Amino acid sequence: MLGQCLFTVALRVLLAWIYNNTGPGVLAVVACQASSNVAWSLFPNHGSHYDPVVTGLLTAAVALGVVLRFGGRTLVR
Q1: What is the pLDDT of residues 38-65, one digit of tens each?
Q2: Which residues cross the membrane (predicted)?
Q3: Full residue range of the structural domain in which residue 77 is found
Q4: Where do the H-state alpha helices sit in the chain?
């Protein structure tokens, strides 16, 4: 459960960053959210091999990399 919570928070950070840096539209955010919703079912047997801890850690690492690379000022308008 903690892995899924970590994934959710990290994905929200990424979605906020994408929204704030792609202009006034929400198409990029919708595409990212949709790919996140579909990705787990691409594993064999509709997510049987999905591990929320691994997914949460990977997504948190990407979110941390974005914050470290571009700074916190790109997360807000």
Answers
A1: 887 777 776 677 888 999 999 999 999 9
A2: 52-71
A3: 51-77
A4: 2-21, 27-39, 44-47, 52-70
